[in-house]
Amino acid sequence: MKKSYKKSYRRxxxxxxxxxxxxxxxxxxxxxxVILFYVLVFYEFFWVKDIEVLGNDSIEKELILDSVxxxxxxxxxxxxxxxxxxxxxxxxxxxxYLASVSRDFPDKLIVSVKERHxxxxxxxxxxxxxxxxxxxxxxxxxxxxxxxVVISSNSNFGLNDTVIESEKLLALNELWQEVxxxxxxxxxxNGSDIVAHTTNGFVIKFISSEDLISQAKILKLTLDSExxxxxxxxxxxxxxxxxxxxxxxxxx
Length: 252
Hints:
2 domains, Rossmann fold, three-stranded mixed β-sheet
């Protein structure tokens, strides 16, 4: 007689989900996330309580603080968007060309700014609409002052405009430093021609397509060797736009 053998199968016990490691890992992750969210948002220890402004010179600290506070939409130092604060400061204050915001934990922001510095004053043709201009040719603040060399043009411009290349502006400023002793206070730009107005009433004509310092040297040489003190008082113009020559005219 043949014996029959049947394979016996043991049923696996069902493990409750709450006893599985995956459940406890997930639960731990959820609890950790909730705690972290609470710390980031609701824990007052990490709320911004102090803002320090560094680098401001002509702009009042309180004005910058107002801009920063208006840019903060989360009180937690972790959630504050520093790039938004920087962008708002730059857009509100054209006098500032660099603004960076850093966190000083647990509850402090440090706002570092760098201001533009004027090297000239840019005006329209009748010298009424004037702005301070920095070394990059950027107009950053309107002014009625004439405490720097004045440059005028008849082009359309306004606040936040870049009106001249930095190299040309630097050359004009160097020219002014070279000849300001003659009473020059205003450079009038007309294409490549530069008309320098003096407090003595005469004008000096330069051309920007040639080296301006060389023209200044020719101007000084002409004044020293060809124009007497008496003639100097009666000058109408001196023209140094022609290579190695200067022409001048006296009032009748």
